[in-house]
Amino acid sequence: MVLMMNAIKQSDRYQSPALVVGLGKTGWSVVRYLCDQHLPVVVTDTREIPPFLAEMRARYPHVEFLPGMPAEEYNHYEQVIVSPGVAAVSERAVGDVELFLREAKAPVIAITGSNGKSTVTMLVSEMLSAGGHQVLTGGNIGTPALDLLSEPTPDFYVLELSSFQLETTYSLRPASSVVLNISEDHMDRYDDLRDYVEAKQRIYHQALAVVVNRHDELASGQFDSDTRTTKISFGLDQPQEGQFGVVEIDQINYLACGTKLLAPASRMAMRGEQNWLNILAAFALIKIAGIELSEEIISAGLVYPGLPHRCEVVGEYKNVAWVNDSKGTNVGATLAAIEGASKPLILIAGGQGKGADFSALGNAIDNHCKSVILIGEDANKIAATVNQQGKVRHVSSLEQAVELAASVALQDDTVLFSPACASFDMFNSYEHRGDRFRELVTLMMRGDSHVR
Fold first, then answer.
1. Which domains, and CATH codes, for the chain?
2. How far is it, in rounded angstroms, from Cα 393 to Cα 374?
3. What secondary structure does DSSP assign to 100-142, as a single string?
4. Per-residue pLDDT, 221
5. Please, which pLDDT band fits residue 222 given cuts at 50, 70 and 90?
6. Which of the residues 115, 181, 186, 324 is marked catalytic?
7. What is the reported pLDDT for 420?
8. Which of 117, 231, 287, 354 is catalytic?
9. 156, pLDDT greater than 80
10. Is 140 an annotated catalytic residue?
């Protein structure tokens, strides 16, 4: 890391053109940031026509675009800024979040994890805003980090950060930070689970305060108390003083900080125990950043409805609930959705598995699902982990999956669409996939037989 930082000194880092690798949403934000400072830029992408090429040429015609540049040529540039999807093969590579952090003037609350990070990011943002604080939110969700610098300086930046972004970030010193959980994801990118965990835990390296999941040893890691000003934990068990958890009194579950009851969990608009964890993590992040949990802050968290494609209830039809969890792009996310769903359960899953181990999903299907309908590239890999093969059904499209689920579902069943896989074998994104599921279910509920 010392070599990296020495290679990118503030005084001379832009004497030669900066190389921007990748011209998607993040890369385009980097190009705008550098060009608006009148700094020389060269752009490369593996694609001949990346998404923002036309916009770049129209706005910055002087910027040179060199498609398909070999990675060994990156070291010819003093500054290399890689998009999150690009492996940092150059020792000079940084990401857009690193550039943002060099200029940001407000405290940062930083959030990562295999699952739930978008929900927690939005919870923290909504709750702080309700408490009267000015907040700007971005990173791996919504607005690219560099675009936040064009806004007036807030009281807090709330950033969702992926493992890919953390790989190329060196100046992160968050006011509070969390790794929500760890489950296998992006195993097509990392050599093993340990590499993935190390990338996630970079969020803690220089943090002023940390929030840890006391149920997840991989996520919480090991901390030296001499280098941490504060640490708070969260979990679903009864918390110790100053920690966050769940207290049961007269068969009612309360969200709590130590012995202080914050609210009954049943008051939450979002359902499922995974969302109890999410709101508890959000409470902890806010408190450890020095903000008291006012009634307004707590209420904002309770009424937050959740994000699209995250255990989103599409509706009920013939007393069957239909739930869109297309954001379930890895095994851990789908396991959480299964645990939080009403039973009996029909699961629709499948897609690109990204090298994941599906054995835990197979066990969950055995134990919690009356039926599983599989689609996509890695459907057979999921099926192979299920012991009760009579539960498994294969179809070739999401349309057929919805049709089959409707035909086998009985009153009080729940149909859960949580793929445990990426979408790119059949769809443009998890949003595209979830939107199509929602459309199909809506057509069915309207009685439209033309769902294909």
1. 17-93 (3.40.50.720), 99-303 (3.40.1190.10), 312-444 (3.90.190.20)
2. 6
3. HHHH--S-EEEEE-SSSHHHHHHHHHHHHHHTT--EEEEESSS
4. 75
5. low
6. 186
7. 97
8. 117
9. yes
10. yes
